[in-house]
Amino acid sequence: MNRQNEIAILYSGGTDSTCAASIMAEEFKIIHLLTFKRFGLFSIENSCRNVDILKEKFPSTIFIHKIIDIDRLAKYISYSHFIQDLFKYGFFILSNCIFCGLIHHFGALIYCLDNKITNVADGSTREWPFFPTHMEKVISEFREMYTRFNIKYYTPVYNFELPSPFRFIDKIYTLRESDREINNDNPCKKTTGRYLFKLGILPSSDVKGTNLDHKMQPRCLQFILHHLYLYWYFMPLHDYSKFELITLKFLREKINYLVTLIERNPKKVKKLSIISSDRRELLFL
């Protein structure tokens, strides 16, 4: 089967990943929207909110949304070398967001290999420079990982302009009943929100941090540990370049290990990846 017209997208259902899906819909016939479910993530079903709208706006594109339980794989990646990592990197391993990005990209890689899909994308932007998957040098590492398996990795919204300032710490308040009101940012900006607003997918060009934003994507509280470690411990002692250096070193080590695992021990990877989606579909077999 020719899979050149298919692409897998790491999909949270939020503004950026939905914008990435909209852009890719102009190029690919079949889009696999991958929403990963694991311990620590809540309200996974929120990711379904924009899928029907995407189908309506792009009737000639086939959208396949999969909610995939990846908890077994997540535990293996997080804890298989925990003691060694603790001695080598110290409290750095408390940065859950570093493991999260690695887990999701590795899950997407396995999905692509298992389904013979040669294209993958995500909604990474320049908005959160302390989130590893949004760091340009880290993106290059993941791109190299995919390339080793002849998979092309797209970041279609990475160079979009940023919306109105929205502090990193504001994400802690995602469980509140109401945050700021929906509004429209500068109409001259090319943001992911404005792109979706023009398509009629969103009611405004700037919904990030609003109740609607919270209802569009899964919720995660684990990033609070990342925030506490980074801003209250690491950054007072070091600088961004140091954080970037350690992050790259850590992820390179983990990526090389996981890639070697796929190449040399595919049976073990298969066992780790025998997990079912919410639709009881058996994946990665």
Kindly describe this structure.
By secondary structure, this protein is of the alpha/beta class. The chain has one domain (7-166, 215-272): 3-Layer(aba) Sandwich (Rossmann fold), CATH 3.40.50.620. The protein is 45% helix and 11% strand. The chain is built from 11 helices and 7 strands. The chain has helices at residues 15-24, 51-57, 71-79, 82-89, 96-115, 136-147, 192-199, 211-216, 223-237, 240-264, 266-272; strands at 6-10, 30-37, 41-42, 62-69, 119-121, 152-154, 219-220. The strands form 2 sheets. A 5-stranded parallel β-sheet has the order 4-2-1-5-6, sandwiched between helices. Strands 3-7 form a two-stranded antiparallel sheet. Strand 1 (6-10), helix 1 and strand 2 form a beta-alpha-beta unit. Helix 1 crosses helix 7 (192-199) and helix 6 (136-147) runs parallel beside helix 10 (240-264). The chain starts with 5 loop residues before the first strand and ends in a 13-residue tail after the last helix.
Key descriptive features of the protein:
alpha/beta; two-stranded antiparallel sheet; 5-stranded parallel beta sheet; 11% strand; globular; Rossmann fold; disordered C terminus
